[in-house]
């Protein structure tokens, strides 16, 4: 323990500000300026003694192979020197990579009144799901407890609270409060698991825990914030909103324990509200951080494109969203009416371009090689590919990102057209099962009716053939989504799923479709991750393989 200060006297008050910030991966100078601006505000407006920032706030998370760049160390050191040079009266606790004796560590660094103080190295490095920290970092082994304003403060980073050891070591070393820096991505059940874990850690070790989480979108990941404080008895004292960037002060009273002053509990958001917020934030940050002027999407009159359009408008504003209806001979009048109603309700630019002339031109060109064959999915896929060409042309001309509209259920079983409706840069609903898409649509309409009721209630169809319905070639979505959940997110075998009461024919068909369509998913746009097991970094199966269905 750093003993350069006198321990706090009983009754002393300590203000800790949780800086729930959105950082841009790789922009080390820009992130440093954001950290400084946040710290200044915390000092001036909140009287902060300590300002705690998220894990790897200086680089953004996850920096991936940027950590291998030769100039990383110099850029980090320049940024840390910049933070120190400000000589703020509060102690800043900043997440950053630090190299020591040739090894790179995921670290928490204390900068107090112009001096670099204690440095802690993360002990538990996650290497599962979307995490691969062992590729880059060495693991620390020792606790770090330092006096800040006379209070023994223990430092930990993210996974350290999920595993036994680091919190216990810090408590044994004398910590009265644990500061835990996080870059914990959102999934639908995550916040409840975090609360239960922190309450147990605090209670078992008799220390308060300050949990500070990042907020914002980074490629497929969305960080939801939800920072909180749990007291030494395991009671939740403070919880801040998810999906909200901000500075959140907490006052502690230093007695035998370091006791946080409890704040009024915030309302518990619904699952649909949280998922919708994740989608909105994921789209906003992906578009803005990558410098796109606007987005464009195909509007079909169906549920998926309707929800995607609403998310895009809520993320970017109607003036940055363009919707295009591309009808064909199989497009119903209802679809045309509903698409126009959606675009009008949300106030976006709306265009209608028939693909009929283009389709006829292609079929004329293909007449000779196709002679003697019967129409099949080839002709259906051509319709989708023509739409993809139109959207990508608008994208190129107007620097717009194409948003695709496929949901997780469709992506899982390959119910999509490669280079057709999969053509684009970002799939908003990629990790959202079809049954949840309907729930999100209903939730969005509670904020203002923008999706016509019959879009939600009528049977879904790709409208690539006469009277086509999705469920003509798939099990009902209520059954399909349950099978997919067990197979994709729970890694259950076909036999184990059948044993739960599902029809063998349905399970074997669905599992086979998931397996054989890996090649499509590898070529699909990224999209917001909202489940524990999304398609992307989470799930890495070989395209070419001989694995058989079974146990």
From TrEMBL:
GO molecular function: NAD+ synthase (glutamine-hydrolyzing) activity
Active site: 55 (proton acceptor), 55 (proton acceptor), 122 (for glutaminase activity), 158 (nucleophile)
Entry keyword set: ATP-binding, Ligase, NAD, Nucleotide-binding
Residues reported to bind L-glutamine: 128, 184, 190
Classification via InterPro entries: C-N_Hydrolase (IPR003010), C-N_Hydrolase_sf (IPR036526), Gln-dep_NAD_synthase (IPR014445), NAD/GMP_synthase (IPR022310), NAD_synthase (IPR003694), Nitrilase/CN_hydratase_CS (IPR000132), Rossmann-like_a/b/a_fold (IPR014729)
Pathway(s) where this gene product acts: Cofactor biosynthesis; NAD(+) biosynthesis; NAD(+) from deamido-NAD(+) (L-Gln route): step 1/1
Domain CN hydrolase stretches: 14-254
EC number, as in UniProt: 6.3.5.1
Catalysed reactions listed for this entry: deamido-NAD(+) + L-glutamine + ATP + H2O = L-glutamate + AMP + diphosphate + NAD(+) + H(+)
Positions that bind ATP: 298-305, 405
Binding site for deamido-NAD(+): 381, 410, 520
Family: In the C-terminal section; belongs to the NAD synthetase family.
Function as written in the Swiss-Prot or TrEMBL entry: Catalyzes the ATP-dependent amidation of deamido-NAD to form NAD. Uses L-glutamine as a nitrogen source.
Protein name: Glutamine-dependent NAD(+) synthetase
Species for this entry: Marinobacter halodurans
Lineage: Bacteria, Pseudomonadati, Pseudomonadota, Gammaproteobacteria, Pseudomonadales
């Amino acid at each position: 323990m750093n003993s350069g200060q006198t321990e706090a006297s009983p009754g002393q008050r300590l203000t800790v500000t949780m800086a729930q910030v959105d950082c841009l991966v790789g922009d080390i100078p820009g992130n440093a300026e954001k950290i400084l601006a946040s710290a200044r505000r915390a000092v001036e407006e909140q009287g902060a003694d300590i300002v705690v920032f998220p894990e790897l706030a200086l680089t953004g998370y996850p920096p991936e192979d940027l950590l291998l760049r030769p100039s990383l160390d110099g850029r980090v050191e320049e940024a840390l020197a910049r933070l120190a040079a400000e000589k703020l009266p509060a102690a800043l606790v900043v997440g950053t990579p630090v190299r020591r004796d040739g090894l790179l560590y995921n670290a928490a660094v204390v900068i107090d009144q112009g001096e670099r103080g204690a440095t802690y190295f993360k002990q538990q490095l996650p290497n599962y799901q979307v995490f691969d920290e062992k590729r880059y970092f060495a693991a620390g082994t020792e606790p770090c407890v330092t006096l800040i304003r006379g209070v023994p403060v223990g430092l930990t980073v993210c996974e350290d609270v999920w595993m036994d050891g680091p919190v216990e070591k810090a408590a044994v070393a004398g910590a009265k409060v644990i500061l835990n820096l996080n870059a914990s991505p959102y999934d639908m059940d995550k916040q409840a698991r975090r609360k239960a874990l922190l309450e147990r850690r605090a209670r078992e070790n008799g220390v308060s825990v300050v949990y500070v989480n990042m907020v914002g979108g980074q490629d497929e990941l969305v960080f939801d914030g939800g920072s909180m404080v749990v007291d030494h008895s395991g009671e939740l004292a403070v919880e801040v909103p998810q999906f909200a960037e901000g500075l959140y002060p907490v006052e502690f009273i230093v007695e035998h324990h370091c006791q946080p002053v409890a704040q009024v509990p915030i309302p518990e958001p619904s699952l649909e509200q949280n998922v919708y917020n994740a989608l909105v934030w994921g789209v906003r940050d992906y578009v803005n951080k990558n410098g796109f002027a606007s987005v464009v999407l195909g509007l079909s009159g169906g549920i998926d494109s309707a929800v995607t359009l609403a998310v895009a408008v809520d993320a970017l504003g109607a003036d940055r969203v363009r919707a295009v209806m591309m009808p064909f001979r199989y497009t119903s009048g209802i679809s045309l009416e509903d698409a126009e109603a959606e675009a009008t309700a949300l106030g976006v630019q709306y265009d209608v371009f028939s693909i009929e002339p283009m389709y006829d031109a292609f079929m004329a060109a293909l007449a000779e090689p196709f002679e003697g064959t019967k129409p099949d999915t080839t002709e259906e896929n051509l319709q989708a590919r023509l739409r993809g060409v139109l959207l990508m042309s608008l994208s190129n001309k107007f620097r717009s990102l194409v948003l695709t509209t496929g949901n997780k259920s469709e992506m899982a079983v390959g119910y999509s057209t490669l280079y057709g409706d999969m053509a684009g840069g970002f799939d908003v609903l990629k990790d959202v099962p079809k049954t949840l898409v309907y729930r999100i649509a209903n939730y969005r309409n509670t904020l203002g009716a923008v999706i016509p009721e019959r879009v939600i209630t009528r049977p879904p169809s790709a409208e690539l053939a006469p009277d086509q319905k999705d469920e003509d070639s798939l099990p009902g979505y209520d059954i399909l989504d349950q099978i997919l959940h067990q197979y994709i997110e729970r890694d259950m075998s076909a036999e184990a799923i059948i044993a739960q009461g599902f029809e063998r024919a349905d399970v074997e068909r669905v599992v086979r479709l998931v397996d054989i369509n890996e090649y499509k998913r590898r070529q699909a746009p990224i999209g917001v991750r909202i489940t524990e097991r999304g398609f992307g970094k989470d799930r890495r199966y070989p395209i070419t393989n001989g694995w058989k269905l079974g146990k």
